[in-house]
Amino acid sequence: MTALATTAHALTDSWTMTRRELAHWARQPVQVAVGVAFPVMLLVMFGYLIGGGRAVTGDYIDYLLPGMLALTMAFGLEGTMIAVTEDLNKGVIDRLRSMPMTNGAVLVGRSAADMLQSALALTVLIGVGLALGWRAHGGPVAFLGAVGLLLLFRFAMLWIGIHLAMVAGKPELVQAVQILVWPVGFLSNAIAAPEGMPGWLGTVVQWNPMSQTATAVRDLFGNPGGETGHVWAAVVWPLALLALFFPLAVRRFARLSR
């Protein structure tokens, strides 16, 4: 089989698995709606109920919205992890692996469907941010670049979640693994500026990969808290995570039930 034919076969298998995951959306619309509504609730809560951020110059909503977009890309992995573990325990993945299918197509389909939901969540959250008074000032190209960085970060987080789901193996263990995501989210500059934190904590926050994405996105949007030069880090960090966890996930998937 030629390289072109192999690639075409892999893409076809991956698209088949993506359609399988999208079909689940039609049967589980509440889960999709909750996944989209949860970050909106957080945005409104921090923007109005808690209100304001210490050490943030300018309008807080302009600082908060990019951070909430990055936070949304880090959170929400529980649905992915539960779906993978349920397929494992119900024997679905064993049946799929017995078919003449490209190794890893099941996982690619799963990640592709989740990326579509992530894009939907970004669209809704940006729309709500506009309604609350947030504005992007960086121009169309910079806007698309910021969205691209957010989706790249999400893609890396998804493959971390897929790998950890196969490590956990059971849906009841997902919650324990999901707790690992929370430090990444809240030990960041998504909600508050590191300048208002103790020195050691501010250093940890600034080195957080999600902080790099949030800072780069703020810069591209022209919002407070953005710093020039963070775009490269917002690209390198997710690519490094992908380079580590993508092959780990595919390798572990290949070894299942051997």
From TrEMBL:
Main location group: membrane
Compartments where found: Cell membrane; Membrane
Domain ABC transmembrane type-2: 30-256
GO MF term set: ABC-type transporter activity
Membrane topology, from the record: Multi-pass membrane protein
Transmembrane spans: 30-51, 63-84, 115-134, 141-162, 231-250
InterPro entries: ABC2_TM, ABC2_TM_bact-type, ABC_2_transport, Nod_factor_ABC_transporter
PROSITE patterns: ABC_TM2
One Pfam family, short name: ABC2_membrane
GO biological process: response to antibiotic
Record-level GO cellular component terms: ATP-binding cassette (ABC) transporter complex
Top-level taxon: Bacteria
Key words, A-Z: Antibiotic resistance, Cell membrane, Membrane, Transmembrane, Transmembrane helix, Transport
Family membership: Belongs to the ABC-2 integral membrane protein family.
Name of the protein: Transport permease protein
Organism: Streptomyces chromofuscus
